[in-house]
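name: query_chain
kind: protein
chains: 1
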Amino acid sequence: MENTSGMKDGAVPAEAKGLNWGAFFLNIIWAIAHGAWLWAVLCLVPCVNVIATIYLLLKGNEIAWRSKRWESVDAFKATQRKWAIAGLIVVVIGIVVGIISSIVGGVASQQQGMLLLRSLIL
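structure:
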């Protein structure tokens, strides 16, 4: 099959289709990197961003395939896999930071409450 990557209306090979988790997790950054400016902007709009993010998950590979000339389908898939791994790392770090900040905030709040209780008793 002819390499149609980089062509706006080029056919996307079946092997290049599928879910694009990099586009899902890193939607704005991914969209800008692949020249999908409209989708990057839509990811910033409240309520619309959910739809835009799901669209990028479902159609991201097609957008990426047409965004530039790829050496091969394997090179394309390897690059998109790296985006997915990077996105997953960012999400995991966000979850870990959220958990740690919740624990630290809870402990600080409890200590503040104990100080307030002591001041009321004394």
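note: The mean pLDDT is 92.
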